[in-house]
Design a protein that fits this description.
single chain, Glutaredoxin, alpha+beta
């Protein structure tokens, strides 16, 4: 089993944090997406979505998408740490928060960044190299969506250290990178006091400390 990553990418960092928090071991191979290595063979055929990370199983099956990879690794490992939850209630709440974070923050900001920054010209659509033009309206919509989410998140975290069951879950990992994206795109995350305190506490965890710089 091999995990194909690119350390600088937030999607890869989500998996990296999951592995460190759960102590799950897997062989990691770095692909340089800035040089388009993931668009060349054999990786293009292995993973037709042309995005990282992706996990190649021993039977040749390829699993892409960060959460799908993490869920597979959790369910097939002997780790006692279950970041997707330990009972029906926890699992439902973790999925609820993770979906809200992704739908209202992480994914809008992901596309907002690709439509704003020079480095993504020609790669606005993930996994492609095309002439599709950047559109700042997408960025502006992403910022407004994220601000709405951050207001709700700030209220939820006023008396909590973590999003669900007062312990770290995959939703916290998603939330951390949502705030990273928000900060990078120009949102003042310090103005959301409770959410910022939660973010800073996460940043101090050993598994998170490599993310001390914007990514």
């Amino acid at each position: 089993m091999k995990l194909y990553q690119y350390d600088a990418a937030p999607s890869s960092k989500r998996v990296e944090k999951f592995l460190k928090e759960t102590n799950i071991q897997v062989e990691i191979i770095q692909l340089n997406i800035m040089e388009g290595e993931h668009l060349r063979e054999p990786f293009k055929t292995m993973n037709p979505f042309n995005c990282i990370p992706f996990l190649e199983l021993d039977d040749g099956t390829v699993i892409s998408e960060s959460l799908a990879i993490c869920k597979y690794l959790e369910q097939t490992s002997n780790s006692e740490i279950k970041l997707f939850g330990e009972n029906a209630k926890e699992k439902a709440l973790i999925e609820m928060w993770n979906r809200r974070l992704e739908n209202d923050g992480y994914l809008p900001l992901f596309h907002g960044a690709r439509n704003k920054f020079e480095m993504f010209k020609g790669a606005v659509i993930p996994g492609t190299r095309t002439n599709f033009q950047q559109n700042l309206a997408v960025t502006n919509w992403a910022i407004e969506s994220a601000k709405t989410l951050l207001t709700r998140l700030d209220t939820h975290l006023q008396s909590l250290d973590f999003l669900v069951s007062n312990k770290l879950t995959v939703a916290d990992i998603t939330g951390f990178h949502t705030l990273r994206y928000a900060e990078r795109i120009g949102i003042d995350i310090k103005s959301y006091e409770s959410a910022f305190v939660w973010f800073c506490k996460l940043e101090q965890r050993p598994a998170f400390q490599e993310s001390a710089h914007l990514s």
